[in-house]
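Exercise 7.
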Amino acid sequence: MKPQVVHLPAKEIHFLRRQFEDLPEVSLFRSSPKLSAQIPSYGILREVGTINDELARFIFDPNS
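Solution. The predicted structure, written as tokens, is:
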């Protein structure tokens, strides 16, 4: 299976940022499950493959 590359348009990123900024300081995941999934997914997307990538070693184990 070939990995799927995801590209988020700037407009969608801006919309996601606005939604996040409009949330109260404490927010339940169940109040907005899609947004609650999109925000960390975008963070992971930005982190993996960069010089500061500490996440990839937990996702991929070459010995398994």
